[in-house]
Amino acid sequence: MPEHKSYAEIAVALPISKPLTYRVPDILRPHIAPGKRVLVPVKNTSATGYTLACVDHTVQEQVKDVIDVLDSVPVFPASMVPFFRWIADYYLHPIGEVLRAALPGGLNPKPFQAIELSPAGRHTLETPEGLNRHRRQVLDTINRLGPTSEKALIKALDGKIGSKTLREMEKSGLVTVKKKIRPGRTQPKKALFVRASEKPRVPPSGLSQTRQRILDYLSTHEAVPLRTLKGEIPGAGRLARKMADAGLLELFEQCVYRDPFGEPIESETNPHQLTGEQSAVLKTITRGLSQGFKTYLLHGVTGSGKTEVYMHAVSETLKQGRQALVLVPEIALISQTERRFRARFGDCVALLHSGLSAGEHFDQWMRIVEGKAKIAIGARSAIFAPFENPGLFIVDEEHDESYKQESTCRYNARDLAVVRAKQQDAIAVLGSATPSLQSYYNVMGKKFQGLTLNKRIEDRDMARVTVVDLRPKTGSGRAKPLITDTLKTAIEETLARKEQILLFLNRRGFANCPACLSCGAPVRCKYCEVTMTLHRQANAYKCHYCGHTAPHTAPCRVCGNAKIIPIGTGTEKVQAKIEALFPQARVDRMDRDTTRRKGSLVKILRNLKEGATDILIGTQMVAKGHHYPNITLVGILCADLSLNFPDFRSGERTFQLLAQVAGRAGRGERPGRVILQTFNPDHFCITTAKEQDYRAYFDQEIGFRQSALYPPFCRLMQVIITGRDKSQTARYARRAGQICREVISDHPRGQHSIQLLGPVTAPLSRIKDRYRWQLLLKGTRVDPLHQVARTLRRRTAQEMPRKGNRLIIDVDPMNML
Ligand code: ADP
Ligand code: ZN
Predict the structure, then answer these.
(1) What are phi and psi of 383, to 5 degrees?
(2) Index of the ligand 1 atom closest to the CA of residue 304
(3) Residue 337 Cβ contacting ligand 1 at under 6 Å
(4) Is 278 in the pocket of ligand 1 (CB under 6 A)?
(5) Between 674 and which of 271, 287, 465, 766 could a Cys-Cys bridge form, CB atoms 3.0 to 4.6 Å apart?
(6) Dist CA 351 CA 342 (whole Å)
(7) What is the spatial distance between Cα 370 and Cα 75, in angstroms, rounded to a whole number?
(8) 457 Cβ below 6 A of ligand 1
(9) What angle do the packed helices 650-662 and 694-708 form, to 10 degrees?
(10) CA–centroid distance, residue 709 to ligand 1 (Å)
(11) 457 and 629 in contact (C-beta within 8 Å)?
């Protein structure tokens, strides 16, 4: 018998910055363990908490008792506790909320005010004479629903009865209102299973034909779901119960997993023989697997076979009895990488991404906890996969910005992969054709080890890139149309060869700058300081920041004129133009608008794969990891869209996007061609993307970062202040700036001094009806930045009335707008 500890350290799922200690009552001591959820009292309510550790002592004054232990098995391994603590510390986020965000949604029970029948109410219901109709209806409904919230009750009564009636009924003692706990929404799913009985009692008179068939079927199968049996043998559903009663077979309930994979994936028969380059890289990684923590950056051109290397490395990890995590960028559905892993490794793959329902997510999670899944693959939240002893962390397309979470706990899953690998004595492999500046710089500084794949599989050539200058010819004054003559000719030639075309424009909708013909005012969002985009298909203006829509027929909000002209071009307009120019071609579009419905993205990709689409137009969704051998022409309609953002990473983003999109061309046997149109043909991001020369791009960009002191030469911390009231928000931001300045001058740090920029209004100065201000802290070390941020939080909370203002701290920010 292990010695049970008296206290537990609990991370409460509320905005409380530190874990709290609770006493564990005797009867709960054998049940509590790190990784299990508990119910604990907080102030005058109760909340879910996560057990981090069981301890003997506490210095905390005022220790309350744990109310209940919610899990029979831990929902995360104790080995992850240091990881969660690290995240809370580094990203300055309450640890209980870190855990809540990491675990599948909907698990936690919620306290609510439950309305119930009182004994008097129950009695009245049995002898309802003299009771008015309304009250009787209320009692009937509560009786039917059981303990229920006021809101649900009023809804069940079609809103015919309001709170007032309920209050009166409470006063007259017909109903009571008590605090109750509602279990989490997400529960294991159970189904009925059938199996052969150990000693079937076969009746002397023999069995009917169908009954015999059922027994024969079961004798060759282990437990099968009743549904499957019904499908195999008509009439089995009805008979199975009778046969169970007669002791011929057994019916039982068992947990089943909701399968998020949808369509079945055929298993792969013969994996590729690795090329020389691939083998060399794999050898290094394999050696690393038995040598403790290390991070590798795998820089491999598009189509060089990185995924194949990942799969071999995962195999090696499993052979050592450890597990592997594979992170892929967020896209709307299971990616090709996920598919290839499933095809090779089958059922031991668990999938974790935001497209799953809460139930599916829970099931995948529990397969990992129970040790049934050894590989987890998914978008950024998969970094929390609850493996006990992971040995390998792969981050595919490590430069992708979807690894950064832009709300609540603003973590970066790529960085966390390295942190968790270090804590678990594992290795991290970050892969990309266009590595982030940060990671490549880490290779230069020997923090990471560089690995390269220089050649495409089967020595296929990289696509040939032609740059088209979009600037108007001197004297003409008019910009060229986005479908230039060069592009038009190339499309014609490609169509004639029966090959496929990808056209890329990183802007959805029809027109992004609709403006009034009379006064010239752009159509602005009511709630944000941005222009709205005209969407033809939806026949409306939409705000891409808050989702607000306005009817297409709305007049100018400034002068009232009805005539608005659709200036600017998005993918929808491109599609209309292409369809007009090439009426015979089969044209499709892939952007957030056409892929919103479930299954629509799969359909677009399937049509492309089967050759049912000739020209695919898309936003950056098309740049991500797709492999279509018959695409031989890629048109980049306007390469400059991301270049002019007021953000020091705009050049990096542009280079990455262009090189990735260009990498979609010529991935099959036929050579590829790229037409890159731009207003800045001499900009180094464009010229290096044209040559697909990462190193040349890196060498220039790194110089700029160094001279302007931006990452990777410093650490950044952004403070965002938002509020509904314009002047109140400004005052709050200025005061926050003052506090930061005071802290900084109180602690002069010599060469590790901190620079403060701002406060200024953010480039996006109002979003969703909230005014936005920014402060940027720069420093060579992260500790002093953390210290300023902590003090700022504490002092603003003490000194300033909140009045609906929010203070958000973003450590290592990606989005500077
Ligand atoms: P990357 O991820 O670097 O863009 P992929 O892993 O998608 O490249 O590989 C590109 C294509 O080459 C895929 O169709 C893959 O199946 C194929 N491939 C990978 N490795 C080999 C190999 N050693 N031999 C033959 N084909 C390979
Ligand atoms: Zn808006």
Answers:
(1) -60, -20
(2) 3
(3) no
(4) yes
(5) 465
(6) 9
(7) 9
(8) yes
(9) 170
(10) 39
(11) no
| Rounded Cα gap, residues 501 and 503, in angstroms | 7
Give me the helix-helix angle, 684-691 and 694-708, nearest 10°.
Answer: 160
Find, among 505, 499, 524, 526, the residue nearest to 513 by Cα.
524
pLDDT of residue 253: 79
Highest mean pLDDT among 32-36, 218-222, 796-800: 32-36
Contact 212, 153 (CB under 8 A): no
Pairwise CA distance, residues 377 & 19, whole Å? 30
Determine which residue's CA is closest to atom 6 belonging to ligand 1: 305
Q: Quote the ligand 2 centre to 598 CA distance (angstroms).
A: 25
Q: For 637-655, how does the pLDDT look when each residue is reduced to its tens digit (9 = 90+)?
A: 999 988 888 889 999 999 9
As a whole number of angstroms, the distance between CA 499 and CA 521 comes to 44
Helix (H) or strand (E) run with residue 469 in it:
strand 464-469
Distances (CA, A) of 167 to 163, 173, 271, 356: 6, 10, 70, 41
Residue 758 C-alpha to ligand 2 middle, in angstroms?
25
Residue with CA nearest ligand 1 atom 23:
274
- Contact between 784 and 749 under an 8 Å Cβ cutoff? The reply is yes
Residue 720 in tokens: 């965002």
For the chain, give the mean pLDDT. Answer: 89
Alpha helices by DSSP H, listed for 497-584, are 571-581
Beta-strand (E) ranges in 188-233?
Answer: 189-196, 224-225
Please state the atom number of ligand 1 nearest to the C-alpha of residue 275: 23
Angle between helices 306-319 and 276-289 (to 10 degrees): 30
Residue nearest to atom 19 of ligand 1 (CA): 305
- The structure tokens listed for 579 are 């369809």
Q: Which atom of ligand 1 is nearest to the CA of 396?
A: 2
Nearest in space to 180 (alpha carbons), one of 346, 3, 46: 46
- Band (pLDDT 50/70/90 cuts) for residue 152 is confident
Residues 6+ apart with CB under 8 A from 290: 320
Beta-strand pair 148-149/110-117: antiparallel
CA distance to 95, 714, 753, 764, per residue, from 792 (Å):
19, 21, 17, 23
Q: For residue 465, count CB atoms less than 10 angstroms from its CB and return exposed for 0-12, middle for 13-18, buried for 19 or more.
A: buried
Instruction: Give the residues across from 675 on adjacent strands.
Output: 466, 635
pLDDT in tens, 375-414: 999 999 999 999 999 999 999 999 999 999 998 899 999 9
Token reading at 639: 């390469």
Closest CA to ligand 1's atom 17: 305
Q: What pLDDT is attached to residue 384?
A: 96
Distance CA(312)–CA(314), nearest Å, equals 5
pLDDT of residue 1: 47
From residue 476, alpha-carbon distances to 282, 467, 472, 682 in Å are 56, 21, 6, 21
Percent of the chain with pLDDT over 70: 94
